Amino acid sequence: MNDVLSFPSPTAQVAQDLFSEHNETEKAQRFLAPVSEQDLWYERDTSHHSSDLIYMDESKLTELESHKVLVDTWTGASTGVVGEKYKVTQMGDFTKATEAMLMDTLPNDKFKDLEISDSMSHGSAVRCRKYTFPAFSKPIETRKHQTEVALTVALIQSYDGSTSNGFVTGLLDFFCTNGMISGDYTKGNKRHTSGFNLTNFMLDMDKVVRNFYRDIHRYQIMAQTNIRILEAEAVIEALPGMSQKMQERMKDQYLTEVETRGSNVWALASALTYYSSHNSEEFPVKGSAANDNVTKSLLDRSRRVSSWMTSAPFQNLLLAA
Question: How far apart, in whole angstroms, are the C-alpha atoms of residue 141 and residue 293?
Fold first, then answer.
């Protein structure tokens, strides 16, 4: 399922009404469908040889006690094989705890016009729910252009081990729908083992909000830091892991951003985050026409862009200002 299921919330007095209305839709129910744990069996060949003769016995099913298979209860399809000690946290429980956390820590007026979007990859093995808070928004202004960026919080759950579980926080640019990661809380000891505790998995939202305003200040500095186009192209060439083909496409995207924002560090950041936010003609997700991989691929791209923006070549543009 490659499409993103977006449901802008209606005006409501209570945050709980927003979450309940969204979660009761059929598309959200599909996203929240639980997985079941089933024993994993394999077929063992019990044929044996004696001289030139082969004696065929019936094949024998043997349980693989070290692993189990997780099955999507909506489709009946397997989401992946995990270790015996993997503790399943259902998406419904994860979202319920997340939404309770948000309601406990944020004033009710901050939920005005809240947007919730659900997306999945690899069938339903990788799931991502993103909350965008327009009430937490601030302008970023260059000499040529102004845009609003809003706080976003995304929870990520994996049922196949292909990505870490947890939260990613960041900002969404309303002008171009580019998103950028400012905090990644999917690492560390938050693994689904027998000792996993969902309560300890929650975010410190006070810290997230403080970091949001800190990042606004940082991005405004980028917007005020003018650079020559040749400087931006040199940084693109120096970013780690960027192929020659990718460099050329990123330079073209930067020139597109310059037309709107001017030639500054913010325009370069916008070019990078365009790549991580869109399965586009300029930056297509490889194999997306035949494979269910867009959500996971864009998440991986976002982490790559986050590392590029903290790399020495990019940061040196600000130090030289």
Answer: 35
291 HSE (CA, 13 A, CB side)? 12
3-state secondary structure 137-163: EEEEECCCCEEEEEEEEEEEEECCCCC
Residue with tokens 């020495």: 312
Cα angle 127, 186, 2; round to 5: 20
Q: Angle at CA 257, nearest 5°, toward 256 and 262? A: 115
**DSSP, residue by residue, 204-220:** -HHHHHHHHHHHHHHHH
269 token code pair: 């950041």
- If you count them, how many residues does the chain have? 321
> What are the pLDDT digits (tens) for 58-89?
556 566 778 899 999 999 999 988 888 888 88
Checking phi first, is residue 188 left (phi over 0); if not, alpha (psi -120 to 50) or beta? left
The C-alpha atoms of residue 173 and residue 111 are separated, in whole angstroms, by 18
Q: Strand ranges (DSSP E) for 45-108?
A: 48-50, 53-55, 60-72, 78-83
